[in-house]
Design brief:
Length: 119
């Protein structure tokens, strides 16, 4: 859970919107936690994507797999126990992947003061 919360903090520090963490341990064999965030534009998605990878690598958590394209509106970063989905707002709404895990418990997202930085 700490990795998911750290990822959420990083995404929040880069002004990611509507950050959600779900505990999937009881409903998925693929991952333990899912973090979902919205960005406002393809460059914002790329910034979120790059920053989360950079900070988690510095914390000793190498990325296992990554996929997607900012221009398509959906990027994915896989850390095995945590999978991070970075969406454009309209793409997130269209796919509604959080509905797949509606029964999974939500985890509190750590909040940062406005314009704070983790570095």
């Amino acid at each position: 859970m700490e990795l998911a919360q750290l990822a959420a903090q990083v995404l929040g520090s880069k002004l990611g919107k509507d950050i959600s963490i779900r505990d999937l341990r009881e409903v998925s064999e693929v991952t333990d936690y899912s973090v979902v965030v919205s960005g406002t534009s393809p460059p914002h998605l790329k910034a979120l994507f790059n920053e989360v990878q950079h900070v988690l690598k510095e914390a000793g958590e190498p990325c296992y797999r990554k996929a997607g394209d900012p221009d398509c509106g959906w990027l994915l970063v896989d850390y095995i126990e945590v999978v991070i989905h970075i969406f454009l707002e309209e793409t997130r709404s269209y796919y509604s992947i959080e509905d797949l895990w509606a029964q999974a418990p939500q985890i509190e997202v750590p909040h940062l003061p406005p314009h704070s930085s983790l570095q």
